[in-house]
Design brief:
Elements (H helix, E strand, L loop, with lengths): L11 E5 L2 E4 H13 L6 E4 L4 H13 L3 E4 L5 H8 L5 E5 L11 E3 L16 H4 L14 H4 L5 E6 L9 E5 H15 L6 E4 L6 H14 L2 E3 L6 H8 L5 E5 L1 H7 L10 E6 L6 H11 L3 E7 L3 E6 L7 E3 L4 E5 L2 E5 L7 E3 L2 E6 L2 E6 L4 E4 L2 E4 H9 L4 E7 L8 E6 L3 H11 L9 E3 L13 H18 L1
Parallel strand pairs: 1-10, 3-4, 3-5, 4-7, 5-6, 9-10, 9-11, 11-12, 12-13, 24-25
Antiparallel strand pairs: 1-2, 7-8, 13-14, 14-15, 15-20, 16-17, 17-18, 19-20, 21-22, 23-24
Helix pairs in contact: 1-2, 6-7
Length: 461
């Protein structure tokens, strides 16, 4: 079932701006780093550059160490991820703004080569006394690492509470990536460009792991602004853009001169509005595919939103309802995964998403999903971004909106799209919602933004 990984060893695996690394060159860095890792069990992988992250992740897995993948780079997220895993060292490609008092390895696989074309290795790697690992080539990695190795601990974003740790064994990461490669028809002829960080499960599966199982190459930039994305896309042939609905809304401003460069676009981390899916497909002239998953199970279903609202599970993955629980059975998990999302099971491999487990609102005897309400609001022309949520001190939803429309006009438009009982109070305009790198919003950040915006409005009034 594995995707064929027929690659030319002299073709670049990684690209960054004007630089590139072939598979043998990349593996020199991996082997050198593997030999120089300290004795600690856990590696706090904070590399921002995708190539550096990939090198660190693979080296640690080969050495039998576990990558700690925090939900963000800020001090709070990092300390939450190391609270129970104190036997760790840090591996990064940048200086930290806070002190952790742990061994710290800094790597940079993009170092300039010497006059003979040889890669310059860092001193701490050259001086290592650790025995050398077997000299693997890139294509051998996926089958060399033992499937029961716990190669990562991924942390949920903690949108409504404290981040939760999720063990990731090699079998589950490889299994999901193989199925994604098959579903999206990705092979060694394709090149990935992602706007999401590697530490996020979606970013990890759709870049590092997808390359390992399919042989595809990766651009290591992580662009955000439309002009930067356009510039990066123009360099791609048979490209795959890995992104989020939040980024796609921004990308609608791109000109059509980038069309035809992509094999497909993949979106995840939040529900995708139908109008946005149709707009992006028209702009880029390629399929826009949604990837459905969770940190606990990884990716397990996909759909082409413009054609069908029904999700289709990846090969060998099945759903079933057991009393009040929705159970997900995956070939590479020993036990079923309990889904917290509310879904309607069509059959064992098809389902429709109804909303997150905790996003139901009940007002005046009427019930609705915040997910559904938010999708309806994002469909409104003139709204750049918005979120409707229930503050902790209220039973009614509030709305924060990024738009040039007046509040009076927004209220009128809202009333045409959602039931009057769910109309937000208050409805406030903001310059930005402050989404994180994966396009998500944290409850506490929204509470703070609502409070400060209210105070500013009262002061101006």
């Amino acid at each position: 079932m594995e995707t064929e990984a027929i690659t030319n060893q002299q073709q670049p695996l990684l690209y960054k701006e004007q630089q590139s690394l072939t598979r043998p060159e990349f593996m020199l860095h991996v082997h050198a780093l593997t030999e120089g890792l300290p004795e600690q069990t856990y590696a706090l992988n904070l590399c921002k550059d995708r190539g550096n992250f990939m090198c660190a992740f693979i080296a640690c897995a080969l050495a039998g160490k576990t990558n700690l993948l925090p939900s963000g780079q800020n001090e709070r997220a990092v300390r939450d991820s190391t609270e129970q895993y104190t036997d760790f060292f840090i591996i990064s490609d940048n200086e930290l703004d806070y002190e952790l008092n742990r061994p710290h390895i800094k790597i940079n696989i993009w170092q300039v080569k010497d006059n003979n074309g040889a890669i310059i290795r860092e001193p701490h790697i050259q001086d290592s006394k650790t025995p050398k690992v077997e000299q693997l080539n890139y294509e051998q990695i996926q089958n060399y690492i033992a499937e029961d190795i716990r190669c990562a601990i991924a942390f949920t974003s903690g949108s409504t509470g404290k981040p939760k740790a999720n063990n990731k064994h090699w079998a589950s990461l490889k299994g999901a990536a193989q199925r994604l490669a098959n579903r999206f028809k990705i092979d060694s002829s394709h090149c990935l460009l992602a706007t999401v960080p590697s530490q996020h499960m979606y970013g990890l599966e759709m870049t590092v792991m997808l390359s390992l199982v399919s042989g595809c190459s990766i651009r290591c930039e992580q662009p955000f602004f439309p002009a930067d994305v356009s510039h990066a896309l123009m360099k791609l042939k048979q490209g795959v853009l890995v992104t989020t609905p939040a980024h796609l809304r921004v990308l609608q401003s791109l000109s059509k001169e980038v069309s035809g460069q992509l094999h497909c676009i993949v979106s995840a981390t939040a529900p995708l509005a139908l109008s946005l899916a149709q707009s992006i497909e028209q702009l880029f002239q390629c399929p826009l595919l949604e990837d459905y998953g969770c940190t606990e199970a990884g990716s397990f279903a996909t759909r082409q939103t413009s054609k069908d609202i029904t999700w289709v599970c990846l090969e060998g993955i099945e759903l079933k309802q057991v009393q009040q629980e929705t159970q997900l059975t995956l070939p590479y998990f020993s036990d079923p995964v309990i889904l917290e999302d509310r879904i309607n099971i069509v059959d064992k491999q098809h389902f429709q998403f109804l909303g997150r487990g905790q996003d139901m609102v009940n007002i005046g005897g009427k019930r609705s999903s915040l997910t559904d309400l938010n999708l309806k609001l994002l469909e409104i022309e003139g709204i750049d971004d918005s979120v409707l949520f229930v503050p902790k001190d209220s039973e009614r939803p509030a709305a924060l909106v990024v738009s040039n429309l007046t509040r009076e006009r927004l209220r009128s438009l809202f009333a045409k799209h959602i039931d009057a009982v769910f109309l937000p109070r208050p409805l406030l305009k903001v310059k930005s919602l402050g989404r994180d790198a994966t396009g998500k919003l944290k409850q506490q950040a929204l509470e703070d933004l609502l409070r400060t915006t209210r105070l500013e409005q009262e002061h101006n009034d």
